[in-house]
Amino acid sequence: MILVNTDYITGKELEMLSLVKGSTIQTKNVGKDISQGLKHLIGGELKAYNEMMNDARALATKRMVEEAISLEADAVVNIRYASAAIMQGAAEVIVYGTAVKFK
């Protein structure tokens, strides 16, 4: 499965199939949340939250790809990510794009 953030794939003629998307809401456990709260006081990278967001993006992308596969797509073009805070320590990540078939 080819995944790109452009609306074309060089050398390929595309047939548009459908919008596909994947999403997830992730949170960290209380212990990690407390340790990250302390980090807020002294500054620096919030590694546990960074890991949480990376995991969320990976899971959302996997779900989008599964939807594209179910349409027998060859690729997903024009991929975009968005995220939003749901509550303290929890975030939603959504990824979407256009499933395409090569002509």
TrEMBL record:
SUPFAM superfamilies named among the record's database cross-references: YbjQ-like (SSF117782)
Coiled coil (residue ranges): none
Entries under InterPro entries matching the protein: UPF0145_dom_sf, UPF0145_YbjQ-like
Source organism superkingdom: Bacteria
A Pfam short name: YbjQ_1
Family membership noted in the UniProt record: Belongs to the UPF0145 family.
Protein name stated in the entry: UPF0145 protein TICRE_06310
